Amino acid sequence: MTDLDPVGSDDEDRDDDRADDEETPPNMARVFDFALGGSENLEVDREFSAEVDAMMPGMSALCRAHRRFSAAVVDHWAADGVDQFLELGSGLPTVDHVHSRARWVHPGARVAYVDWDARTVAHARRLLSGVDGVSVLHADVGDAAAVLTAPEVRDLLDLARPVGVLAVGVLHYLLDDAAAADAVRVYAEALAPGSGLAISHLTSVGRPDIHTWATMNHGGWSYAPRLRGPDEMSPWLEGFTVVGPGWVSAPHWRPDAPAPGADVTGSGLWGVVARRG
Ligand SMILES: C[S@@+](CC[C@H](N)C(=O)[O-])C[C@H]1O[C@@H](n2cnc3c(N)ncnc32)[C@H](O)[C@@H]1O
Q1: Does the beta carbon of 168 sit less than 6 angstroms from any atom of ligand 1?
Q2: Residue of 193, 160, 157, 164 lying closest to 88 (CA atoms)
Q3: Residue nearest (by alpha carbon) to ligand 1 atom 13
Q4: I want to staple 250 with a disulfide (CB 3.0 to 4.6 A). Which of 69, 99, 139, 187 is the partner?
Q5: 87-140 pLDDT, tens per residue?
Q6: Cβ(84)–Cβ(157) under 8 Å?
Q7: Domain edges within the chain
């Protein structure tokens, strides 16, 4: 398991996640929030976002593409009766995030969010304080056993019933292929029939600049992703039945969308949704 920075006391967290000074580095979850039109971001995040977009046009659009995918998937699962969700690598629960989206259909929907970034977790807990049926776990999603047995997950979700598991924009940060496969297998084995797994994952197929992003020196930004394709990830779906069009450009995933050619994404993201049989 990765050593995680501790999440501090409530008071420290409040100061920490609102601090807007030169010492505060940009934070991925807040950069995402900015790209999504949210208000939970700082000047450093907005500047960083502009720098990245200037270097690689369309990076902000990628954040929105992830969100279009997760919204379509949550809508699909909720319509199918799923009212419990586990979001791996959740970032900040701000703009149209899982619990708000699911609660349009199931007002009592339960959602466990997991992120490994201490500042993001503290910020998310502050945003969700007073919201029932939602938890935020500070953990590495690569340590699936720890996630599944943590009280934030175990006491909130009933794993004997269907759960929708979202791995949206996170598995490409599990750099070791075998460890990533193993983690997905442990989540899969814990899920009841009728559960769902949704993955969106960075790719350079149709977007060669993503390869540049993945291989460049990221300096202070510690998130250099591992790009993978369906050939590498399809074995992760053993025990599941793929739902809808299969591997597609993630923001274009819809349960009734036609299956495109195998080499098409262009959005920089593969997306797939599968159901535990
Ligand atoms: C690209 S953002 C996606 C956020 C969210 N899933 C969404 O769609 O808006 C990725 C998030 O995953 C978190 N993350 C990256 N690697 C992680 C890991 N190994 N365990 C837990 N969280 C991780 C980051 O801190 C970040 O908040």
Answers
A1: yes
A2: 164
A3: 89
A4: 69
A5: 999 999 999 999 999 999 999 999 999 999 999 999 999 999 999 999 999 999
A6: yes
A7: 62-276
Q: Which fold has domain 62-276?
A: Rossmann fold (3.40.50)
Contacts of 181 (CB under 8 A, 6+ apart): 235, 236
Question: How far is CA 49 from each of CA 26, 187, 222, rounded to the nearest angstrom?
Answer: 9, 32, 15
pLDDT (tens digit per residue) in 49-72: 998 888 888 888 889 999 999 999
Summarize pLDDT for 143-183 with one digit per residue, the tens: 999 999 999 999 999 999 999 999 999 999 999 999 999 99
- Which mutation among 98, 116, 153, 174 tests ligand 1's pocket best, with the greatest number of atoms within 8 A of CB? 116
What are the pLDDT digits (tens) for 1-14?
Answer: 456 777 754 444 44
**Buried b / exposed e across 189-205, counting CB within 10 Å, b at 16+?**
ebbeebbbbbbbbbbbb
* Residue 141: alpha-carbon gap to chain centroid: 10
Is residue 85 within 6 Å of ligand 1 at its C-beta? no
Q: How far is the CA of 90 from the centre of ligand 1 (A)?
A: 5
